[in-house]
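For this section, I looked closely at a protein sequence along with its fold in token form, which I now present.
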Amino acid sequence: MLIKYNANLQGFKLQPYLGPSLALLVGAKEKYSYESDEDGDYDYTNDFKDEMNSLELGLNLGVDAILRENIMVGLRYNYGLSNIFEDADDDDEYVYNRGFMLNLGYLFGR
């Protein structure tokens, strides 16, 4: 759930927002393959979902701009608050999901 504020400026609307996020792990696999002259083809698949936490808590901060009444452009940053690995004993083993998102949209019915 995001808390959003609408600021009407000349020619466009600016909508900053802030709120928590909850993510659910669906799967965690890695796959790769390579060819070797000595060993032939090698395929490897590792399912490590059991080593990861199934829920993650984060914080979203972003802003959307509404241009020409129906074009939306936005930028969001997601700051993961919880470690995604289940058994992390050392500070070096803590891993968080963090990233920027850029969105572009068309608003219908306006």
Observations:
- The chain is about 0% helix and 60% strand.
- Residues 3-23+56-106 form one domain.
- The beta strands are 3-4, 7-9, 12-24, 29-36, 40-47, 55-67, 71-80, 98-106.
- The CA atoms of residues 58 and 80 lie 4 Å apart.
